[in-house]
Write a structure and sequence with these properties.
The structure holds two protein chains of two kinds. By secondary structure, chain A is an all-alpha fold. Chain A has 17 helices and four strands. By secondary structure, chain B is mostly helical. Chain B is globular, with a radius of gyration of 19 Å. Chain B has a domain of 208 residues. Classes of the chains: A mainly alpha, B mainly alpha. Chains A and B meet through helix 8, helix 14 and helix 16 of A and helix 4, helix 9 and helix 11 of B.
């Protein structure tokens, strides 16, 4: 019972996800399954990004870097054994001439992404709040330039095709659940709470003995691993790896999801990703054209993007903390002492706002 | 020796361009604590206003067909209006938000504008030729100077001087600098917030329009992301110059220009495509040594 209560915020997220996936798996069309799988992979990335951005308050533009590193690493190990020696001739011989089993190569790819996050975190997290945020953009540019021009290894801007496709909707769901639990445990751990304290009040947190550097660095590294996992899943969901998928546009979509759901809580991330994925899919089909009662109509292409950007701005202006308002789903039947605490908190917040 | 001078001139030309963008970003950051991602799209839209919206690869000219003084005026006016509209609709309601929300909002505005261009003009790159006469090279003391570079330098330096005079000598300019230094204090002393911020955006629009013309004369291609890289360079120019310092932004712009030209000139040929990665790595190193930037105001904000 106690553990049920304590883990309720996670259960309240995971159980609906499982139900939705079950329903779609049983009754949904092929396209619906595809879209949901992609949404789940996005959710893995979004949760990874949230572990750093949500807890530290520092916006990162750079997490696509780790996603890309892992996706490419997995492609190097598992892709197209026949073609590899010619199209990716610059790879070290043992990678070039061998094809590795899927699970170990997924693990090493995630590890590599995490290692890149660790090394860049050592440097970037030394910077102050704002410089750190902007410098993650530099990280993204560096990755993009290197991958676009290191053609003997990455095939530059061309797409690598022929990766084994093994990510099903259930596989993506399993990864999502693991990542959500991990993120929840992290945000309630000692380091997670310290990091959240720095988000609320940098100076006071420092005065209480919290190290800005270490708390941020740990979150950055961890979220790098999770972003890497998302990269591997994405590569083996699409079966292709293309550099253009790992730049600002996709970063923007994920950030928009975080903002709309509310990026200060795990529930916000899940709600944001689910909602926006559904809405964009509806709009995408509307762009392709609907026919209702013999009348066919279509919205002009690009509507998706405009709607997303406007929604995000409206949320920022009118409901800054997103749909979930920075809250988790709480155990709905609090004990008496908890109820008192909640009442007190309410009174305090009323006093503060008046 | 001539090679070195050539490199130096390249550096100054590209540095001036970055300095202008950095100045636009620095001004807006100063009064509003907003890093304006949309600056890149101001530049892009300014350039696209030269042509009639269509899907063609070599579209008919719109403002580009006008005689050049009218063309310059129309392009700059378009961008100024755009900058003011984004300020009024998106950034003003968020004026009192935290830094991260502001940054995200400009990210959203930028994405919105980019999608709008995509919708109106289509995604394919287009060619447009204005100012062909300028692509001829001029030779001075054995150094070849492409006309465009000369133009960029002259325009940038003129604009910088005009801006400095404006900021130092006119009442509005002084209010602007005061606001950039300490916005709250300036307001308390009677500086009208709305006007100062609007003027900062208008100037960033003027600079954006000018830059878009300079870039177009140089490259002759319209592309949805044409404004992005100069803007990212300018971000780091303002960061290494010291956020909120206007001279810092200009110096930062020149540092970025010089860095990228030096790497371009002296890296071994096979590493040259990786130039930008080198530039940004060096920038991060500079930030490690001087996290507050070169012209930073002293120490941290007080509690």
């Amino acid at each position: 019972m106690l553990i049920l209560k304590r883990m309720f915020p996670v259960i309240a997220l995971v159980v609906p996800l499982i139900i939705v996936v079950f329903v779609i798996d049983q009754f949904g069309t092929g396209n619906m399954q595809r879209v949901s799988t992609e949404a789940l992979v996005r959710l893995v990335f979004a949760v990874g990004l949230y572990m750093f951005v949500g807890n530290s308050g520092i916006l990162s533009f750079g997490h696509m870097t780790f996603c890309a590193v892992a996706a490419y690493a997995s492609a190097w190990q598992t892709c197209c054994s026949m073609m590899k020696p010619t199209i990716m001739s610059g790879l070290p011989a043992f990678v070039r001439d061998n094809t590795f089993p899927l699970i170990p190569s997924a693990l090493t790819s995630v590890g590599l992404a995490g290692a890149v996050a660790l090394v860049s975190g050592l440097v970037l997290m030394r910077l102050s709040f704002f410089s750190a945020s902007i410098s993650t953009l530099a990280l993204l540019v560096i990755m993009n330039v290197v991958f676009a021009n290191w053609t003997t290894v990455t095939m530059g801007n061309s797409t690598i095709v022929g990766l084994p496709v093994y990510v099903t909707i259930w596989g993506a769901l399993a990864a999502t659940v693991v990542v959500i639990v991990l993120a929840y445990l992290f945000q309630n751990s000692r380091w997670g709470l310290m990091l959240r304290a720095t988000r609320e009040e940098e100076v006071a947190a420092q005065a209480s003995g919290v190290s800005l550097y270490w708390s941020r660095f740990i979150a950055f590294t961890l979220s790098g691993f999770v972003a890497g996992l998302a990269g591997v899943l994405f590569a083996h969901f699409m079966g292709t790896v293309s550099l253009s998928n790992f730049f600002l546009n996709h970063t923007f979509i994920i950030v928009a999801m975080l903002v709309i759901g509310g990026m200060h809580s795990l529930a916000g991330v899940v709600v944001g990703v689910a909602l926006i994925s559904a809405v964009t899919e509806v709009l995408r089909q509307a762009e392709a054209g609907y026919s209702i009662g013999g009348l066919s109509f279509a919205v002009p292409p690009g509507t998706q993007e405009l709607v997303l950007a406007v929604t995000m701005l409206l949320i920022l202006i009118f409901r800054k903390d997103g749909i979930m308002g920075g809250k988790e789903f709480r155990w709905p039947w609090p004990a008496r002492s908890d109820r008192l605490a909640i009442e007190e908190r309410k009174v305090a917040s009323v006093q503060r706002s008046s | 020796m001539t090679h070195f001078i050539q490199v130096l001139i390249d550096a100054v030309a590209i540095g001036s361009l970055y300095a202008l963008v950095a100045l636009a970003i620095g001004l807006v950051f100063g009064v509003m604590r907003l890093i304006n991602f949309a600056q890149g799209d101001y530049i892009t839209i300014g350039a696209y206003s030269l042509v009639v919206p269509s899907a063609a690869a070599t579209p008919a000219l719109m403002f580009g067909a006008l005689p050049w003084p009218a063309m310059i005026l129309c392009v700059i006016l378009t961008v100024v209006v755009l900058a003011l509209v984004t300020e009024r609709l998106a950034f003003r309601p968020l004026r009192n938000s935290d830094l991260t929300s502001l940054l995200i909002s400009s990210f959203a505005v930028s994405y919105f504008l980019q999608s709008l261009i995509l919708m109106v003009h289509g995604g394919r790159p287009k060619t447009v030729s204005i100012g062909d006469a300028l692509s001829r090279a001029v030779e001075i003391f054995g150094v070849r100077l492409p006309g465009v570079q000369l133009l960029t330098m002259v325009v940038a330096l003129t604009l910088l001087i005009v801006l400095v005079l404006f900021l130092k000598k006119t009442p509005i300019g002084i209010q602007l600098r005061a606001a950039a230094e300490d916005f709250q204090m300036a307001r308390l002393l009677g500086v009208p917030a709305n006007r100062v911020i609007a003027i900062a955006f208008a100037i960033s629009g003027i600079l954006g329009g000018t830059i878009s013309l300079l870039v177009i004369i140089q490259t002759g291609t319209l592309d949805i992301r044409m404004g992005l890289m100069p803007t990212i360079f300018a971000f780091f120019a303002t960061v290494i110059g010291g956020m909120g310092s206007l001279p810092g932004a200009v110096v930062g712009g020149y540092i970025m220009g010089i860095l990228s030209v030096l790497l371009q000139a002296y890296l071994p040929a096979e590493l040259r495509p990786f130039r930008d990665a080198g530039v940004f790595s060096i920038v991060i190193l500079i930030l490690l040594v001087r996290p507050q930037g070169i012209f930073a105001k002293t120490a941290k904000e007080r509690v």
